[in-house]
Amino acid sequence: MADTCSSGGGAEAVVSAIAARMRALREERGLSLQDVASRAGIAKSHVWEIEQGRARNPTIATTVSIARAFGVSLDYLAGLSSARPDLHPEALRIACEVDALLRMRGADAAPAPTKWSPSMPDGEKLS
């Protein structure tokens, strides 16, 4: 698939690229529409509408959620880049979820560093 930027596409080209890449990623990973919906936190019907190109103006929040669900960048999902991440898609998806959870907790709520060794109980705090 050519990059949307290099093909001179506007909003319609981006919507088409999102639809095509969503379908390709979903099929490549053996995911159902419901799997994608659950991972992205959106309705299954909305995933279907976007994948079919029927949702002409998905929100940024929705497209970011879908990109995270697949473990790809928003640029890749929108067809603005052909660069795929080096990480395994599932590892990247998990990393994005952990990052979002940590950001919700805030920087001030970071736990004390822990170090595990076979002779220490799990999670013993360092002095």
- Per the principal axes of the C-alpha atoms, what is the gross shape? globular
Look at the structure and give the mean pLDDT.
80
Poorly predicted parts: 1-7
The run of helices and strands is HHHHHH
Strand pairing plus helix content: what structural class? Answer: mainly alpha
Q: Into which percent range does the helicity of residues fall?
A: 40-55%
Looking at the overall shape, the CATH architecture is Orthogonal Bundle
CATH superfamily: lambda repressor-like DNA-binding domains
CATH class descriptor? Mainly Alpha
Radius of gyration (Å): 18 Å
Quaternary state reads single chain
The portion of residues forming beta strands comes to under 5%
What's the β-strand tally?
A: 0
CATH topology-level fold name: 434 Repressor (Amino-terminal Domain)
Helix segment tally: 6
> How many structural domains does the protein architecture include?
1
Q: Span between N and C termini?
A: 54 Å
Specify the biggest β-sheet: none
What are the SSEs and their pairings?
Blueprint: H1 11-28, H2 33-40, H3 44-51, H4 60-70, H5 74-77, H6 89-105
Explain this structure.
The protein is an all-alpha fold and 127 residues long. The chain is 52% helix and 0% strand. The protein has helices spanning 11-28, 33-40, 44-51, 60-70, 74-77, 89-105. Helix 2 packs across helix 3 (44-51) and helix 2 (33-40) crosses helix 4 (60-70). The longest helix is centred in the N-terminal third of the chain and has 18 residues, at 11-28. The model is unreliable at 1-7 (pLDDT under 50).
